[in-house]
Write a structure and sequence with these properties.
about 70 residues, mainly alpha, 4 helices, globular
Length: about 70
Amino acid sequence: MTRGAIQYVKGESYPSLKDYLESEKLMIKYKSTKLGGLYTNIAMIYNEISEEGLSASYLKKPFRLLN
């Protein structure tokens, strides 16, 4: 997840998103407790690249983790 954050800070939205989506797969596989924060980061990038529908979808995912 750190590499995605660094790319995001450098203004590299698409490579950052790619890394975050790869991290999502691993975090799900290993049941990471930090998945909610990752979903927020993914939503933020989708919003920046004008994918508001996907952004909204990822913003809802942390709430599903609570159930």
